[in-house]
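It is worth pausing here to work through a concrete case rather than discussing structure prediction in the abstract. The textbook approach is simple: state the sequence, then state the predicted structure, then interpret. We follow exactly that order.
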Amino acid sequence: MEDNDDFRFYIKDNLKAFFNIIEAENGKKGWQKALAQHPNLVVSDISMPEMNGNDLCLKIKSDKRTSHIPVILLTALTGEDQQLKGLETGASDYLTKPFNFEILQSKIRNILSQQEYMRKTYQKQVDVSPTEMAVDSPDELFIKKVLVLIDSNISNPNFSVEELSNEVFVSRYTLYKKILAMTGKTPNELVRSMRLKRAVQLLETGHLTISQICHKVGFKSQKYFVRTFKSEYNTIPSRYLESLSEEIMDE
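Step two, the predicted structure:
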């Protein structure tokens, strides 16, 4: 976001070869676009009409619909106090104008790489144990609540993404963007993945039939359960069960 048309064009011209750019000429419109389009990162000047960059960053970081979006602040103001003020709003980084565009590109790439690493970390935590994730940041609290809700409704075949979004008080669109950013899965994929992982756990206990497991993990149709299981694990549940028996016999 930048209110100076020439400088905004200059920024866009230097970044458009590497990134998809969404423009806004002031902080208020920048907030509206951040809320509507959920960009992967925001670069904003501090000095803007209607809503300055610090206030914009604070708004982005304090709203659970957008708190996961990193922000880089730009300013012509110098001094550690100004920089500290910007960082205290939750900004990921800070650049004083004039600056080298290669440095800006590098900072953007570094932040996006860290975001991707975070997404993969969340995904691993989901794969290993959804209910044992450490709680720290607002995003961790958010995904923790999502995972607990899915886990507690794992046997409910009627548990929907709409119900999930209502439980965490965000729109379906916001839920989609935040879960995709944190886990690499859509909400439906995440629910299905957790159902299948629970199915694997139940298969490994050896105490239930495939039909019983199908209903325990919230699949209405055994045919759909088998097809989805095969898509995820490249084998059908009965064959997976046989392979477990073979491993026990080999031991």
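Step three, interpretation. The chain has a mean pLDDT of 81. The chain has two domains: 5-115, 129-250.
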